[in-house]
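Hi there,

I know you've been waiting on this one. I reran it after we fixed the sequence typo, so this is the corrected version. Both the input and the resulting structure follow.
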Amino acid sequence: MSATCSIVFTGGGTAGHVLPTKPVIERFLDRGDRVVFIGSKSGLERQLVADWDVEFNDITAGKLRRYLSFENFIDAFRVPIGVLQALLLLLRIKPNAVFSKGGYVAFPVVVAAWLLRIPVVAHESDLSPGLATRMCTRFVKTQCVSFAQTKTKAKQVVVTGTPIRAELVVGDARRAKTWLNLDSRSKVLVVVGGSLGAEAINQVVHSSIDELATEFVVIHVCGKGNVNESLRTLENYFQFEYINEQWGDVLALADVVVSRSGANALFELLSLRKPNILIPLPLAQSRGDQIENAELAEQNGWSLVLSQDQCNSESLIAEISSLMDNLTQWQAKLQTFDVKDSTSLIVAEIDQVKN
């Protein structure tokens, strides 16, 4: 089938700026369109999209920082180089539109598209736009957001929610039980600190594991290099550095999930109606976006929130017990979350603006 149009996707710096593009990319590929992804030379984006059947190109990208650093001076030269490289790529590709998921690599591509009068649709997952999104605002045709409460100066704003990977939607608890060789239907607690794990959460889980593993089957995604060898033989405790193909099945099996509150992770939990406890990254480690996401979820009754500085064995066990004691009420509250067909909404916006 010949391509009916060409769409350039860009985003990177973290997995959260790449993975949500997958359902949108798959939709265009299914239609027979040409899809090209532009990422950074760091290698992260190339690895993430390696199996997506898309053409990949990389550019030089200067990191956008909110703090003073000598690296800012060096990156001041990298950004215009990235813009020039993006211009040359876009002139060769001749896309009908560009879709930006944010991150520092997106800025040169968005600016280059604007200079070439190629329409840009951007997406912001968090409640408050990140620095790259704010810098791109004047250059985009449509700004898609996950939350109606998001404040942006974009001319055209559409609330789309965040695309959820198809493999999560079709997760099967029975497959997870077979994978883990679970004989009976026990209560299942899933703990995940993000794609790279979370040391603070890991420490609390390890100090609480004897009690937690008495009450639950505990599935713990602890991050690369963080498996505790001394706990490998503990009954009802499964440790993984990362779960990929089986993640949708594991979420389907979970009764309760303890997680960071990055927008993508939060949307997955809410869309799948999973009772959850959020432990947002503190301000010392972030710009506060996870705190804002968690507060919104808490205000709407979708999540329990436990700050990292108050998270210890006693408080974590107490919050889990409280959630389990009121599980029916929490499940009812989660039904009020509006699950949008985010992929279709974003595709529609791209189709509307493309040349």
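Quick highlight: The radius of gyration is 21 Å.

Best,
R. S.
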